[in-house]
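Design a sequence for this backbone.
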């Protein structure tokens, strides 16, 4: 495993103190694995206008947050067409995943379909 990729379910699970998410993050920290997510995932979970998501803010401070630009947006659209799926945010996350990464997701079925379409060899962990 080279990195831990986080989807919205992982961040929501962290906020809700889910034990499985906490264990996956703890293992990544102990192994000194980089954490990565998409800016679109942050948009899906961020609702704070006054300090109520302090724990999530602390977590995100240690996560590489990849912006979505025109090229990645078009690549995500192409991936949706090839995979027969419809969630653009899932497609953007799938494009972040590299071989040997671990993906922490609440949507393993669609993510598996996307990653299979891309030919990625990765471990998908349901949260």
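Sequence:
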């Amino acid at each position: 495993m080279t990195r831990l990729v986080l989807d919205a379910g992982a961040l929501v699970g962290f906020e809700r103190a889910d034990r499985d998410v906490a264990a996956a993050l703890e293992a990544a920290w102990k192994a000194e694995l980089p954490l990565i997510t998409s800016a679109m995932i942050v948009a899906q979970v961020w609702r704070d206008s006054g300090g109520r998501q302090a724990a999530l803010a602390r977590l995100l401070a240690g996560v590489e947050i990849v912006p979505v630009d025109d090229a990645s947006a078009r690549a995500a659209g192409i991936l949706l067409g090839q995979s027969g799926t419809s969630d653009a945010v899932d497609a953007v996350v799938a494009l972040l995943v590299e071989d040997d990464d671990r993906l922490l997701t609440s949507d393993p079925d669609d993510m598996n379909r996307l990653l299979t379409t891309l030919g990625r060899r990765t471990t998908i962990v349901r949260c």
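The longest strand covers residues 35-38.
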